Amino acid sequence: MSQTALHDDLREKARQIVADVLEVDTDELSDTSSFADDFDADSLLVIEMYSRFERDLRIKVPQEDIVELDNMTTVFEVIGRHSGAGAVRA
Question: Which of 17, 20, 31, 34 could bridge to 72 as Cys pair (CB 3.0-4.6 Å)?
């Protein structure tokens, strides 16, 4: 699997997790939509996203990075910093 395919797969899995937690369709999530402002996400939903990223994507994200999770762009940045080549295993 190429790095691009892995990256696309990781992005799609992250987008699905966020959509599931926010209870919206993935096509409602633009990269810059604010979870708090556009979807009324509170801190508990952000913590749920964080937990799902760790569990479902099998990555370890430091707790201090939780505060960055406000839109898909920051989700991709945080996951990218903490995922290795084998981070996505189905």
Answer: 31
